[in-house]
Automatic annotation (TrEMBL), chain A:
Organism taxonomic ancestry: Bacteria, Bacillati, Actinomycetota, Actinomycetes, Streptosporangiales
The keyword Oxidoreductase belongs to this UniProt entry's keyword annotation: yes
Protein name (Swiss-Prot/TrEMBL): Thiamine pyrophosphate-dependent dehydrogenase E1 component subunit alpha
Pfam short name (any one): E1_dh
Cofactor: thiamine diphosphate
Keywords, ordered alphabetically: Oxidoreductase, Thiamine pyrophosphate
Domain Dehydrogenase E1 component positions: 14-309
Amino acid sequence: MRSDTPTLLGHFERMLLIRGVEDEIARLRTAGDMVGSIHLCSGQEAVYVGAVAALDLSRDAVFPTYRGHGWALACGVPPEALFAEILGRVAGINGGRGGSAYFTAPEYGMYGENSIVGAGAPIAAGAALAASFDGSGRVAVAAFGDGALNQGAVHEAMNFAAVRGLPVVFVVENNAYSELTPIADMTRNPELFRRASAYGMPGGRVDGNDPDAVARAMETCVERARGGGGPALLECMTQRIVGHYIGDAQHYRPAGELDRAVAAEPIGRLAERLTAEGVAADELDAIRARVADRVQAASRLALDSPPADPATALEHLYA
Amino acid sequence: MPEITLSTETKRLSYAEAVNHALRRALYERPETLLFGEDVAKPGGVFGVTKGLHREFGDRVFDTPISESAILGGAIGAAMFGRRPIAEIMWIDFSLVALDQLVNQAPNVRYVSRGAVTAPITVRTQAGNGPGACAQHSQNLEAFFAHVPGLRVGMPSTAQDAYDMLLSAVWCDDPVIVIENRTLYHGAKSDVRLGGEVEPIGGARVRRGGSDVTVVTWGAVQNLVLEAAEELAAEGIEAEVLDLRWLNPLDLAAVRDAVGRTRRLAVVHEAHTFGGFGAEVVGLVAESGADLLAPPLRIGAAPARIPSALSLVPGILPTREKIADGLRRLVRGEKAGDAGALR
């Protein structure tokens, strides 16, 4: 065992939890218990677990996208509350008002998914703007996919954050696809981190399937922002090993691409690394079993929760 | 920073000066307020409305890039964390490039989180046609925003309301859009009561009494309505003019009371008649079962873009003559409306 092994075991368990929850959501959606469009993050877990490891969730604020289950779980949202939210149940984190693609969990530092590509970036800049007045030391994380780099709101947010030196880290989850279209076909320079220099902020690219590498790169960005150094852009290279949404047949993928993505997915990779560091197979299996039990128990709990009460539908619109 | 004192007496102020006094008071009394937008700080605003505030309040009043999504999204994010931003969108036409933040973002914050997070932003903007304005600097878009549950919408038409309603907006815990009118900014001064309690948002005002017809109106066009009402008074027709002030919350009780008295309803707005908020007012009155003596009348802009040339504009926007003619016909029981004319 090495000194970083306990940290990596923590990453391993959190990534397994995200994967297990996503697999269970796929089952519930296919079975018809869940309805609507659901975007799973399987394969991208290292980005969330690594990035959140660098945050202080008692004051920092994460603004993810509609592919946000992984961010929520990495922030500590209980899986039962997440399942119940997508099921539209009373016990949901927003009582069913958010659903899969637009829930918020401020008590966990997770300030809302966003179903509009790139729209969370200016809002994250606003959270950082508040930090520049309130002395909290808060760092805001604006997370979005590669496709969002072609949204005007993201450009505006980056320039605004840079010119005001706001404590924001822009995290790009580059899974190579803007929804169903390769990002490489949608921009002349697919090295998205290079855009940072145009705004006068640092930008870098990291292996987004390595939670440890993401965490270390993120720590640099977060410390810099918290210390008054302003925003940064961190491009995390990853791949989803599922469709853009549940039911996406992925015909657009070239032959063999998905197999290669599965072979490179972060959980198996980390298991190999932990094994190489001397962690016994039994210990990894025990973690797998513990997570599987937790996912199943959470799913049952959520399914037992009653549907959101229609009498409350008009509440909380105004102060 | 110089020592700041607030006037609390009645002063003769222009509409723009009244807005400036309200902003000063908000910045002074609510340390969590921020004021930002394009050219609002060092330049003092393209219409001079915010002049002096950056000097008095320092970094809390700042200039932004020409980035409406960043302005509005930044306001929302800051509001979620305890600030009370007052964001300026220089022309309401510019709000369209950042409509996502106003429609998809701000009004959902409280609702989805069931009040765990809120976005108490105030968006100040100005709307309406003015001499020589082009088609992208002349629109009246209040119906867009009034259509969105979760957004509050007000349109002050007097200097007193410019002061009062802006403060009500800043004090309100909902996202509020206050739509000012630049043709009013530097007009005649009037007495404005400063200080006093900040009223909650909402509430219509009767601007002129009358028994023959109720004219529901809002925004700068109200001045044309009042002139038309004076013209009609000389002919023995007394029009009651009700300034709606707030489209959300809507003071439907005031509208129904007024229409109940006069039993004739006209709605006048500068915005396009088709799909305009006047249709909502007429619809609500109709649904309430009002016993009207004549079909209700809507007067607004004809369905066209807004041209720049002075000679072209009266063919599209409401004028004093069109308003007087419409009200005269309504009261006389002649065909007044233009229903179905969508040329």
